[in-house]
Amino acid sequence: MSKAHQHPLEKILESRIAIIDGATGTTIRTYGMAEPDIRGERFGNSTKDLLNNGDLFSITQPDMIGDIHRRFLEAGADIIETNTFGATSITQSEFFVDDPREHGGRKDPEFYQKIIEDQYLNDLSWEINERSARLGREWADRVSNETLRQRFVAGAIGPLTVSLSNSPDADDPGFRVVTFDQVKAAYMHQIRALIAGGSDLLLVETIFDSLNAKAALVAIREVFDQDHTELPVMISAAVGRGGETLISAQTPEAFWNAVAHVKPLSVGLNCSLGPDLMYPFLEELSDKANVAISCYPNAGLPNPLAETGFDLGPPDMARYLGDFAKGGLINIAGGCCGNTPDHIAAIAKVLEGQPPREFSRQVSRDVRSRA
Questions:
Q1: Measuring CA to CA, how many Å separate 342 from each of 68, 183, 261, 345?
Q2: pLDDT, average across residues 247-255
Q3: Tens of pLDDT along 307-316?
Q4: Which residues lie closer than 8 Å to 255 by C-beta, 6 or more apart?
Q5: Where in the chain are the domains?
Q6: For 236, phi and psi rounded to 5 degrees?
Q7: How far apart are the C-alpha atoms of 184 and 174, rounded to whole Å?
Q8: CB neighbours of residue 206 within 10 Å
Q9: Is 50 exceeded by the pLDDT of residue 362?
Q10: What DSSP state is assigned to residue 164?
């Protein structure tokens, strides 16, 4: 990438550690929302519970989602994620389509082809993604203007509720519930809506199935080529206790080798085990990758007795992320599940003035800034 066409976020990554926001879902829970709040009038007649469909709050409770963005930005986030982790037609079908397994059938490619072609689900997916991106854009611009410090909106692309790598049928290991092309089509629809809403970059995150991620990355490339646009891409995987992606079982080095051709702005780890167990896997990825490294772990392991549902408080997360910075491992830092605006504020404070990890990035394709 020539300096003349360098994206503003990349310039920041060369000079300091950038801060990404925390967990939208965790923070939503602090607002005490109940089933009627997510339904509103529009979804009042839905036959399934919707409260776990947090992306829907961008439609029914936009003021709350905007307030969450504001709080993370005021806590010090340079990058906020759109509220779109499950905003594909495939994932939304879990909340709006009867499960054929309840009637003696099964989910299979024929079932998901109907999902991909369902006009209601496609329209809903588009609306969630575009509205979420516009909410993020509004608050990023507002806080940028107030603080004279540029902020960025990352279009969040989650891992789906289906797997391209594994069969759910132990007696038929070759069976897949969905095809690569179906997953790619769902992602392309989401990506176009995220771009239409004003996202600065795209974030393929919490990757537990590398083949699902590959479909998302192919979808991104095809949208860029077909629509004559280009945004920076961030890629982030979730790992297990051995450092492997959870379904496809790739080591950090293998994961990097699988996505390096995309020439992303950053690659990293998120969610997973919490920061205390992540260090060696982050160290391996940092050693192998020639792009910026991101890290936004869970606040430890789940704990239903903890206030946020996770063990670690703001001082704990600040200490661990500070250690990552002292080890020269990170360029982007924040928090995943269990991390509230207070966690992000503590992380931002401890990382202020810490030098970023050094990296040398060779990119053959100019990335046009939308900032």
A1: 12, 36, 37, 5
A2: 82
A3: 888 999 999 9
A4: 207, 210, 237, 245, 267, 285
A5: 3-351
A6: -140, 130
A7: 20
A8: 22
A9: no
A10: S
* Residue 42, token pair as written in the block: 């529009």
User: Residue 294 contacts by C-beta under 8 Å, 6 or more apart in sequence?
Assistant: 20, 234, 236, 266, 267, 268, 269, 270, 330, 331, 332, 333, 334
The amino acid at 163: S
Q: How does pLDDT run across 153-212, given as a tens digit for each residue?
A: 999 999 999 999 998 888 899 999 999 999 999 999 999 999 999 999 999 999 889 899
Q: Which residues pair with 266 in a beta bridge?
A: 234, 292
Q: Rounded CA gap, 183 and 158, in Å?
A: 12
CATH dotted code for 3-351:
3.20.20.330
- Asked whether the beta carbons of 49 and 35 are under 8 A apart, the reply is yes
Which of 253, 258, 301, 257 has its CA nearest to residue 277? 301
Residues near 297 by beta carbon (within 8 Å), at least 6 away in sequence:
269, 270, 271, 272, 273, 274, 275, 278, 317, 320, 335, 336
Mean per-residue pLDDT, 350-363: 83
Tokens of 282: 């982050």
Which residues are registered as beta bridge partners of 80? 153
Phi/psi for 335 (5° steps) reads -140, 150
Q: Cα 100 vs. chain centroid, distance in angstroms? A: 29
| Predicted confidence (pLDDT) per residue in 319-338, tens digit | 999 999 999 999 999 999 99
3-state secondary structure of 71: helix
